[in-house]
Amino acid sequence: MNQHIRVNRQIERVSAYFWVSTLFLLLIFPGCEKGPKRFELLSHTHTGVLFRNDLKPTPEMNIFNYLYFYNGGGTAVGDLNGDGLTDLFFTANQASNKLYLNRGDFKFKDVTEAAGVAGPEGWSTGVSIADVNGDGKLDIYVCQLGSHLTFQQRNQLYINQGNDAEGIPQFVDEAKAYGLDIASYSTQAAFFDYDLDGDLDMYLLNHSVHNNGTFGQRNTLLDEMHPTAGDRLYRNDGNQFTDVTATSGIYSSVLGYGLGIMTPDVNNDGWPDIYIANDFHENDYLYINQQDGTFKESLYETVQHTSRFSMGCDWGDINNDGWNELMTLDMLPEDPVILKSSAAEDAYDVYQYKLKYGYGHQFARNNLQLNWGPNPQNGNPMFSEIGMLSGVYASDWSWSTLFSDYDLDGYEDIFVSNGILRRSNDLDYINFITNDSIQARLSAPTVSVRDFQLFQHMPEIKLPNYLYHNNHDLTFTNVAREWGLDQPSFSNGSAYADLDNDGDLDLVVNNINDFAAIYENHTRNQLQDSAHYLTIVLKGTGSNPFGVGTCIIARTHGQTMVRYASPTRGFQSSVDLRPTFGLGETELVDSLWVIWPDHRFQLLTDVGADQFLELRQDQSQGIYPLKGKQSATPLAYRYKDLSKETNLNHTHKENSFIEFNREPLIPHMNSQEGPALAVGDVNGDGLDDVFIGAARRDTAILYLQMANGQFIRDQTNQPLWNAEAHYEDTEALLHDFDGDGNVDLVVASGGNEFNNSSPETYTRFYRNKGGRFVRDSFPSIGLSASALAVLDVDLDGDDDLVIGGKSIPRHYGKPASSYILSNDGHGHFRDVTLEIAPFLDGVGMVQDIDVADMDGDGRLDLLIAGEWSPVMIALNKPGHFELLKGNDLGLAHSEGWWNTFIPADFDGDGDLDFIGGNLGLNSKLKASTEHPLILYLADFDFNGDQEQVLTYYDRGSYKSFATMDELVRQLPSIRKKYHSYHDFASADIKDVFDPNVLDTAVQLVAYQLANCYFEQVAPMRFEMHALPLSGQVSTIEKGMATNLDRDPEPEVTVVGNFFPVNIQLGRYDASPGFVLDFPDGKPVVIPPRESGLVAFGQCQNVVQINSPHYGPLFVVGRNNDSMLCFGLSPVTVPDSKQ
Hints:
By secondary structure, the protein is mainly beta.
């Protein structure tokens, strides 16, 4: 990674690649190629587990008439005969399910027939092991494909009758008696106590198929219950299950392509919530438990986007902060050849079409949702999706994800099973079958034998599963090869269990067309002194004797680890009911809190490691205080949302202009930049007012502050703003330029829609005539502007103006010009750029300009942030500016996508440092000093127009980020060169394009993508430090230095996110806004639950307003969204830092 950074669908489905440094692997796993590996794949001849889920297409059943033909079977584990050893159950699609009893030493016995669980012939899907009737013996629930073609089987509930004389558990299918003999498109059942009445209820996850009629306006389909495809919630009323779906708040429509279910407590209120992972276009569901038998679907109130083809899912606390993260799997390949030869994201217009139909933001990649804790403004859960930052976003066609601590180091790792027997999203295959005659044949209820050859056109690629090791810093490294999990397979349902009771967790995997895999974990054998553990055996009371839903919190050496007894996880599977803590080198747990489902608790102290600790609910005392207190904070003031109180909740409305239609190969659009904000006392009453600019075809607005702290719309100037609605306001500034004591208004235009010769791109100047603005003359400079700054350039006592140029419309990548305008003191301006700062002519794609005295000479200098630009500071010298950039500042290879620079003395040493807002590290795009991003600008098709080709380094060569279809749309000649997608996928960029054209092309580079802190270590010499990884989750677009604690140094409040991005990249939306503190001169991210700041959305501008009523107000302008206004609330009990 960068030397400056520490760590540092079936036909539509998609793809990318997260590069991991070999050096990093060697440092973390020294000698990993030598000696025994952590996991050992045991031979089926040793284990006796001969189960195989063999699949063979038939005319009656195949992927053409059942799109989930290759989804595979499930795995469940549990001690079914009560001998202390964990047993195994596998489901098969075209064969018998199997039950194996654990005989010790990883030897198992097939007792399927003897136990009575072979079941009728059918297509089994998921399996759950739970004590359904609460008698202390584990039961088995098997889901079936029950309402499709010839498959009309019902789900089975095998109730454990106890052991026979040989110790074999005996089962009887009592599903009908319990009300659970359901015939539907069943995927998986989760047994959990949602109403906390002491018994286990059931959520039945169902899936759908396209010919059910699943396409259309979402709101016309969502509330209509479907008899076989819709999910169901059943309440346990004394071993009789009652369907309460209709009154529970659960969606049960044809739209539900349910493939994954988990029941996490996402808000730590002690009540289980429900997450449903839906395939295809339907949104996932997050049901928040309302504690009254009902749920509220709250997904897009808590997350910003999800996976597109969500499959398996799981949850766990990856950073030991006590809040559970969520993960959903998708299909994005890591291998670049598979990636480029597989169907990618929807076209941008299709994506927008789906949004208009009511579907949410979805991207085809694994999603890891970081839990920030409760939103301090409303108490809702709050997540940011960080899969690309964490390195877990691309594991190919993935099914099961399982969070657990596989190396017992105290942090949860992530196992992912993957593989698809036939890759129906292969582009060459799709191209082959997109033929009217073939499509007509495939639409028949059965497929003829002569059409079976069509299966052979789908690629068959076995891939290894993934094991992501937790690096303890929000990032993960795939160690499957190093840990012995690299056998290629088609793996589906999976479970973890301690099969030999040695303290570490083994893995059991259901494979297609192969034996089930059992991996023995050797961690305890290899690292006994540094791999301690604690396994919890729960003894619950009443009808939940296994304590399902119990939360256990272990605190030791400053770490807080949380585990739950929640067996339904991954994909179609159930895991070990005994929660396990990895303790690393720790031999004693300082405190162990056990919170039972009824909220009674136990507290144990000084608990020894390396034991199976039995805990009994009948020994619990008291009610655990689940309602949390306000989070501790190092700040003296927290932000408080005052948007409604102040009436500063105006909504910006962006006009519809899709730049990708004009320049399809650009990485993002430059046309969604507002709202412009400017603060000043317009009407002379001594109170700050605020001007809010508008997008084209909308009107700007001026809000006047009242003595009570509220803001009202100014009517005096509204006719003027209405007349100027053909402009796109991108920046604004209120300042007294003519010395009459009234603040005048400058508004810069942009939007990238009009050429720079168009009057719609001119910057406008409005004189303030006693609160009424009048437009006055101003130099006719056309540009798509990004910045306005005020400073006295010539020290003549009046303030001059700097205008930053962002881009040249229709020519992304070409350097724009910026300007300095000299003020004669009467508000008459003259362009003096070439006289005093000629370097601003074509200086680059400027995103922002700030002013500060960076060299301490008493003159304000310019900090210039630009895209594809190095760090630039223009020093204000007598009569001219001197540009320093990159190496001049001690900042080699500082070229990045810089959005803003925020100066202040953050380390308290007397000189100015600055924060650099960049893309952040939560992106598919990766860059380093050795391997930067490169954008080629050239007329590749010799038609007189410039094209942009974005390239990235991957496995030894540079490749086009654009897909073949995206390139062909702009450069049709590529289709003649590459007759297959696979040929293109293997090509280096120098194979795709004429090397002579590449060599003569303009090349823009970006070495740095991290948000950074620039420390001034000597006069005008800086060191660049990447911000902590929690500050890299998205872009930083704007910020403001403000002192929020009791030390002399300021903190900086930053906001970000950027949405109009190439669809393959997905929008950057993970930032809730942060406060950066600098204890000991080092940047620390203060999370939202501590700072009070929550500013999701595309935050494009910030200003501070002085309010005598509320105090300082921090106002955030969000593109195509409502504004946010925050006041400051004193912290009642500051922590010890203060």
